[in-house]
Specification:
The protein is α/β, with parallel strands linked by helices. The chain has three domains: 134 residues, 2-Layer Sandwich (Nucleotidyltransferase, domain 5); 58 residues, Dna Ligase, domain 1 (2-Layer Sandwich), CATH 3.30.1490; 103 residues, Nucleotidyltransferase, domain 5. The strands form three sheets. It has a six-stranded mixed sheet, with helices on both faces. A five-stranded mixed sheet has the order 12-11-10-13-14. Helix 4 packs across helix 9.
Length: 312
């Protein structure tokens, strides 16, 4: 969301420090051709995040790329608000005060960006936007290791938009797409249409809960997931009846055996497992033929699929 122009090589390089590793993904996308993953790798950060970034800055020539990273859980907020009736240049400031009382940090110094939610133009419908916000100190903390390692960041994004970037590749023409990502911390359900994020829901079920434990416990968790998805899809249909949803794509890591079959039995739209080979090329990264490896790296790849400010 928060970006500044200025790239030397085409495409984006996503740089994701997480725990004791730093992961990189370089994706090249150009008009009229499928996006290509040129690089996907993970490196040990046993001497700390800054040291790892310094090594990679030299070894992978990070200064030659437009680099981006993602905010972490709890470091930002996404709120859906009525679109302010002010000129575009004044929208962020108008939304800043609309967020007061909705976030637990000072809105006066918060970093804010705005995403329009496309509507059908029906009379009486109020236009809405997503306000993406983060405390100034959270953004500075995310940037600081990169600054100390002298790795220039051209953008900082959020996981929901990285997921949107991937989901948009699977859309059928003039149809909406539901996309469910499950990891060890929970789930994220998004609805996209014409490449734009329309709606999102946090799902309080994790891939780990579905993959581990006894069969009875797994069945209970699956029932809860099905119920959450049924309610969310029904809600989407009521709010966005002008968007026919063609299918639900699923990406889960750790792997959840039988999840597509279980969801297919209980949902009214087709359910498919994500396979990036249908929409992307990755000759330099043969490991991506494995669907579980794809799911593991979904957000990393999605971050590198940015289009804002893209030099191609």
């Amino acid at each position: 969301m928060f970006w500044k122009p200025g790239a030397k090589k085409s495409g984006w390089m996503a740089v994701m420090p997480k725990g004791d590793r730093v992961a990189l993904a370089h994706v090249l996308r150009s008009a009229g051709v499928r996006p290509e993953v040129r690089l996907l790798d993970s490196f040990a950060a046993d001497q700390g995040e800054i040291k790892a970034l310094q090594r990679l800055c030299t070894a992978r020539q990070l200064k030659s790329y437009a680099c981006t990273t993602l905010m972490g859980a709890g470091e930002y907020n996404i709120n859906q608000l009525d679109a302010p009736g002010v000129p575009p240049a004044e929208r962020k400031e108008a939304l800043r005060w609309g967020l007061k009382g909705m976030v637990d940090y000072p809105v006066e110094t918060a970093c804010i960006d705005v995403l329009d939610i496309p509507m059908d133009g029906s009379a009486g419908r109020t236009a809405s936007v997503f306000a993406v916000s983060a405390a100034e100190q959270s953004v500075r903390a995310r940037i600081r290791p990169f600054e100390e390692a002298k790795v220039p960041l051209a953008a900082i994004d959020v996981p929901e938009l990285a997921q949107r970037n991937v989901a948009a590749l699977f859309e059928d023409e003039n149809r909406g797409l539901a996309f469910l990502r499950l990891d060890d911390s929970g789930g994220q359900l998004t609805l996209t249409f014409h490449g734009e994020l329309i709606a999102l829901r946090r799902v309080e079920v994790s891939a780990t809960q579905l993959a581990e434990g006894d069969v009875g416990r797994q069945a209970q968790v699956m029932e809860r997931l099905v119920l959450e998805l049924q309610r969310s899809l029904d809600n989407f249909d009521r709010q966005y009846s002008f968007i026919p949803v063609s299918k639900l794509m699923v990406a889960a890591y750790p792997a959840v055996d039988g999840i597509v079959a279980a969801l297919s039995e209980n949902l009214y739209i087709p359910v498919l497992e994500m396979d990036l080979a249908q929409v992307m090329d990755f000759p330099a990264v043969p490991e991506l033929r494995d669907l579980h490896f794809q799911a593991k790296n979904l957000l990393l790849i999605g971050a590198a699929l940015r289009t804002n400010g893209l030099a191609a």
